[in-house]
Amino acid sequence: MSADVPDVRQTRLDNYVDRYAARTKGMTASEIRALFSVASRPEVVSLAGGMPNIAGLPLDVVGSAVRDLVIDHGAVAMQYGSGQGDPGLRDQICDVMRLEGIEAHPDDICVTVGSQQAVDLVTRVFCDPGDVVIVEAPSYVGALGVFRAYQCEVVHVEMDDNGVVPEALEQAIATVRAAGKKIKFFYTIPNFHNPAGVSLSDERRKRVLEICQSANLLILEDNPYGLLGFDGEPQRALRAEDREGVIYLGSFSKTFAPGFRVGWVVAPHAVREKLVLAQESATLCPPVFSQLAISSYLTRHDWLGQVKQFREMYRERRDAMLAALTEKMPAATTWTKPGGGFYVWLTLPEGLDAKAMLPRAVTARVAYVPGTAFFADGFGSQCMRLSYCHPTPERITEGVSRLAAVINEELELRHTFGPLRPGASHGYEAPGPELS
Amino acid sequence: MSADVPDVRQTRLDNYVDRYAARTKGMTASEIRALFSVASRPEVVSLAGGMPNIAGLPLDVVGSAVRDLVIDHGAVAMQYGSGQGDPGLRDQICDVMRLEGIEAHPDDICVTVGSQQAVDLVTRVFCDPGDVVIVEAPSYVGALGVFRAYQCEVVHVEMDDNGVVPEALEQAIATVRAAGKKIKFFYTIPNFHNPAGVSLSDERRKRVLEICQSANLLILEDNPYGLLGFDGEPQRALRAEDREGVIYLGSFSKTFAPGFRVGWVVAPHAVREKLVLAQESATLCPPVFSQLAISSYLTRHDWLGQVKQFREMYRERRDAMLAALTEKMPAATTWTKPGGGFYVWLTLPEGLDAKAMLPRAVTARVAYVPGTAFFADGFGSQCMRLSYCHPTPERITEGVSRLAAVINEELELRHTFGPLRPGASHGYEAPGPELS
């Protein structure tokens, strides 16, 4: 039997199992997925999903914009376009980023199919199997999935309420390099972190930049929530301070709508050229109609006024969640206090396991994402991510109340039977759009 | 100096050159790109581009469809969606494929960002570096780019006017396996081949299926042009005869419009599951708005009637090209006679080099794609791809006339100075959307 003829047994479900690429070993469906399909039933309060609440969008404006786009510019809007993205939209993206102190040229930008694809393309361009990517602990589940699909080694670095801990970052770089491994970049979400709900302080921004510059280490700055802060002006991006050492990822998914799948990368010139080639290989070009629809929306509408409305809506929900947590949660439960974005990171009392508890929570009609999803290494079992972006304040209050009752029950069980031994965790699990 | 600190010299243009992944060695910009930007000037007749001619689309129907989609279903159409693709659209895709004899279930389908992304995801799931992919000679430039980006070894198999030569396929499989290498799939475009302009005959379809079944080799059937045949009914797809051994790729780019970037894969269940995980890692989900827009168009419009109009329009252009070639080309020039699709494959008289000739052709205000772009191994220098999809019949006639004059001049030069020695070819070059 020759090399690529698999030994197919009748009892085997997957006839192709011997033929897949090695990278597919990192692609496994989440075991909690089935639970999420239950959690989407209306009687369950889902604090799990990361879907933005787009009910406030001006449908009449968007509807006219897409209609006119077809009628007036259909031959262009429905045709293939530039692999780098529409030049007009790239110009507008520069205006959007200026709000965070970024001075960029449209040539520096590569449009992507949501910023998820930006993470994919950057990793494709930089990472060989076995290369190290440094990420925060916890980190975005969708980015962990990409790093795993490209067979990277993920090294987590401690965070606290002010974002990543600079000394821990410095230490991690030194340790990985001392082991003779290549670090390709430090992936960070400085603003309103998903899932941690914290932001990198001003002081630490400087330190993180210094550390990475002196270590000659690229920063991959993922910033989907930067304009969704509840207090004061948007933070200056890391990219605003360093054009050569920072690759910046942006997205219209949270400031406008995710269904068009438009994000972008800003990268130094040579890297940007590679990204465009990678984009052409991946899709030929990002969706032209989506790009021009967003371009038209930005032109026709007070889009920043709309973002301000989103902020107020999310602020109200954040307030409802924090108030309910304070009122309902048992002692020894702690959580972060986000200044923007969508997420609170909650740590259970010692000895409780968020994943083991999830089926009971869903039975009690509340859902969340267990913390292990946000670690590549099985940590996080005592933690969970709670989203306040989608439900109404009343539903959030009700959901937190149900969750507190479940935690109290767990505490009683533990009191009666002793601490649970958490099962072995698989760490990262494929996210699915609902966990984005 | 530690492992990942590059030696950055001031004279080096790309500061990141030591940090890229090995796969980027296969990602290089085409040297003929600069010429194509000249070729896009209106005085040049471009027989190079593969952009469909969508001028005939009913803009009023599409305009109303997208407007109503926003007004009536905006909260869903602009939100994240399923990683596998919209269930309603997948159901409609089954109807589309039934025209080619395919019986599929919506669960078998994974929607992609154009069928380019389908090639990318299938390769991602199956191919490790060094794995062999068998392709036709010539083959689609965009697929060659994907195989190269995944560091596959590409083995070409001879074609003639009836498509791939079965004996050559059988021989290639045996030779590669005898060398101890793994073949992951046979990539084929059975209908109105890009760039060869030929179709696989009925008899050979059976033989190719038998050969691949007995060799236990997957077929990757890429079929963007299957409904654009000029004579009789659509051919039965290879997938129609074999559900387990064929992965089928389809696209709305040529039957509707490419700017929405919607294609699809039909794969056996286990493979489809991997593809969905790969899609979620790549983009979270394909563009929801695009999918629902196409779904609405298919419902509201006589889309198959529109495809028939496209066919007639392309037939008229094919006829114009073949007539002009017959009338103008010097002896010893040969070309294929496509029964559908967009392309004619032309072979120059012995000793002429299509790539070397291109700058002179562009100066004479006609452009084409040199044949080397469609080979991974530097072959094809005597050939070129001519597209008749976009220009008017009059422009096609004029373009062929200019091209014939350039070829005649080359023949005179050769007569005077002896045969040209073709320069070393780089083989595959990144396509760019304009070459798709």
From TrEMBL, chains A, B:
<protein>
    <submittedName>
        <fullName>PLP-dependent aminotransferase family protein</fullName>
    </submittedName>
</protein>
<dbReference type="GO" id="GO:1901605">
    <property type="term" value="P:alpha-amino acid metabolic process"/>
</dbReference>
<comment type="similarity">
    <text>Belongs to the class-I pyridoxal-phosphate-dependent aminotransferase family.</text>
</comment>
<dbReference type="GO" id="GO:0008483">
    <property type="term" value="F:transaminase activity"/>
</dbReference>
<dbReference type="InterPro" id="IPR050859">
    <property type="entry name" value="Class-I_PLP-dep_aminotransf"/>
</dbReference>
<dbReference type="InterPro" id="IPR015421">
    <property type="entry name" value="PyrdxlP-dep_Trfase_major"/>
</dbReference>
<dbReference type="InterPro" id="IPR015422">
    <property type="entry name" value="PyrdxlP-dep_Trfase_small"/>
</dbReference>
<comment type="subunit">
    <text>Homodimer.</text>
</comment>
<feature type="domain" description="Aminotransferase class I/classII large">
    <location>
        <begin position="58"/>
        <end position="403"/>
    </location>
</feature>
<dbReference type="Pfam" id="PF00155">
    <property type="entry name" value="Aminotran_1_2"/>
</dbReference>
<keyword id="KW-0663">Pyridoxal phosphate</keyword>
<keyword id="KW-0032">Aminotransferase</keyword>
<dbReference type="InterPro" id="IPR015424">
    <property type="entry name" value="PyrdxlP-dep_Trfase"/>
</dbReference>
<keyword id="KW-0808">Transferase</keyword>
<dbReference type="GO" id="GO:0030170">
    <property type="term" value="F:pyridoxal phosphate binding"/>
</dbReference>
<dbReference type="InterPro" id="IPR004839">
    <property type="entry name" value="Aminotransferase_I/II_large"/>
</dbReference>
